[in-house]
Amino acid sequence: MMKSVYIAFGVVVGAAMVAGGVAWAIIAWRGSGPGAPPPPPRGWWETADLYQIYPRSFKDSDGDGVGDLPGITSKLEHLVEAGAGAAWLSPVFQSPMVDAGYDVSDFYSIHEEYGKMEDFEQLVRRAHELGLKVLLDFVPNHASTESQYFKDSEDRVEGFEDFFVWADGLHDPENESNILPPSNWVSQFGGSAWQWSEKRGQFYLHQFSVQQADFNFRSPAVRDEMLQIMRFWLDKGADGFRIDGLPYLMEANPADHGGRYPDDPLCGRKEFGPNQLGYTVPLYTKDLIELYDIVYDWREFVDNYQRENGGDTRVILTEGYTNISMTMQYYGYGGRLGAHFPFNFGFITDLTRGFSAPDLVYCVLKWLTYMPRGAVANWVLGNHDNSRVASRLRPALVDGLNALTALLPGASVTYQGEELGMRDGRVSWRQTVDVEACSRGNEQTYQLYSRDPARTPFHWDGGPSAGFSSNASTWLPVASDHREINLERQKKEPRSHFKVFQALKALRKRPTLTHGDYIVEALSDKTLVVVRHLAPLDSFTLVFNVAGSSDTVHTDWIRSLKLPATVYVTSLSSKRNAGDVISPGPLELQAGEALVLQASSLVSYGHKLS
Ligand code: FRU
Ligand code: MG
Ligand code: CA
């Protein structure tokens, strides 16, 4: 895992890895002496941009208004053009679609609206031809109550009795004929996390919707089944997994609590009723230390798979919203390796509208400070569970934030549409399908919870249904701003979010970005700077005014920047152009303006990348 620090001396040839890890772009490297080796190549996943495809909303090939696998395959070139190294597909498995596919009813087959197994095989083949890796979404915490596993468990079929978390109810002291749930646990979507099964005469646990029953990870049979599922998809050519909902994988063991499930402590805030998320503090239902060993076992499994079968590294990336120390343990602990990286949600959870440059610096350095030595960082701006960048923060920040994730060391993660600066779509209560909005909200409050606005179809063009579907009616409405914000238009326009994005993602494949030192600091309350440096190559520096008004900084304040520098790429909000020269002196930046500057090498005082 540890990589020695590469320091370049002399005449060398730098190799920048391009998507897929097969082809190598050779970049002439000016130097002062002979003999130094090129920087060691990094694994494909260490510097890649991972592009999240939300299958229902990417591209509909058969006109039913729902995206599908042949649609995705037909548009994979877009990922290449966007500079991605890998696609992560949100779940494509058979599902009653209560939670948009995160309620899997058969982990071994493709959801019928999305296509057939051959369509998946075709997708993987095409992706690999294009040099793209394919990651699948693995949802181990729960299965749909329509799955055979659940039906068999409910029927106490031998071998499946303990596949899920079953428990007897408690007697109601106030009403003899009533049975109460085993504990006060609250579901992520509101209401008790326990549901009564008439058939089995017991409650089952569901940390998410009623139709998503939690697997019992204390059962060796369940753990074994998970490995079978992973092996199945690796055999089909998947390059690894994004693993869903890990903090909820395990719950307290009744054996440690006198034979019953212990109540979570109460949060004590009066605004929450017992059926609302937040009523309890999830002491026994989230972040249990035992779950990490399962993740480490999965890492061992994919590493062994790679050793036995050859090919590039198969990765596991973990999803969990939790505090920094619990997050970092996903990387590994006590000599065991874990996730190749756990998703870094800092830009989603720690930045609010009106954030300052120091807020942003703090957020970046938090990850880099806690991350274990030699581990790979990653930067996530959005996903299917959160409001889009332009809507959550400000449209003017789209390019600057894309530049930030491009300039920072490690991998970046792009949710489909963020390369265009797409905004949240408008979805009325009547059109709302998100189970979270429907369970936690009502006609008045659903917008507080609904994830549908970030899930509306991709804007391929300005035509009907945005080129997403030939059908005028789509599973979620197409956002009306697709006439202004769409890929076709942004490809034609001389300057666009997409063109900025392309320039940035191409830039991040250079050795300075994949291997160089970094400096991240605030020059003022408004302006952030990121310097990347790898002598004797040119350095690249991002200067980004995150505020809603202009800011004047001084070029002297930027450590390790040798002037004059050349503007490499700018945000749309900038009046400057690529190729403009920045000379020593005051530098005025417009609201939201981001500049990436190219300069010749100077001694760097930055942090070494391991
Ligand atoms: C991420 C997520 C959600 C889904 C939940 C349960 O939090 O992927 O989209 O509702 O996990 O699988
Ligand atoms: Mg379709
Ligand atoms: Ca669980």
- Report the top-level CATH class of the largest domain: Alpha Beta
How many domain regions? 3
| Low-confidence residue ranges | 1-35
Largest sheet, strands/sense/barrel: 8 strands, parallel
N-C termini distance: 10 Å
What is the fold named in CATH at topology level of the largest domain?
TIM Barrel
The level of helicity is: 10-25%
What spatial order of strands do you see in the largest sheet?
A: 19-16-15-7-4-3-21-20
What fraction strand? Answer: 15-25%
Named at the architecture level, the CATH assignment of the largest domain is Alpha-Beta Barrel
Q: What is the radius of gyration? A: 25 Å
Determine the CATH superfamily of the largest domain.
Glycosidases
Query: Based on helices, strands and strand pairing, what is the structural class?
Result: alpha/beta
Describe the global form: globular
Bound small molecules, by name, code or SMILES, are: beta-D-fructofuranose, magnesium ion, calcium ion
How many individual helices?
A: 17
Note the topology.
Layout: E1 12-17, E2 24-29, H1 44-47, E3 49-53, H2 69-74, H3 76-81, E4 86-89, E5 93-94, E6 106-110, H4 117-129, E7 133-138, E8 142-144, H5 148-154, E9 166-167, E10 170-171, E11 179-180, E12 194-197, E13 202-205, E14 212-214, H6 220-235, E15 240-243, H7 291-309, E16 315-318, H8 324-328, E17 332-333, E18 336-337, E19 341-342, H9 346-349, H10 357-370, E20 378-380, H11 389-392, H12 398-407, E21 411-415, H13 435-440, H14 446-449, H15 487-492, H16 497-507, H17 511-515, E22 517-522, E23 527-533, E24 539-545, E25 551-554, E26 565-570, E27 581-582, E28 586-589, E29 594-599
Parallel strand pairs: 3-4, 3-21, 4-7, 7-15, 15-16, 16-19, 20-21
Antiparallel strand pairs: 1-2, 5-6, 8-14, 9-13, 10-11, 12-13, 17-18, 22-23, 23-24, 24-29, 25-28, 26-27, 26-29
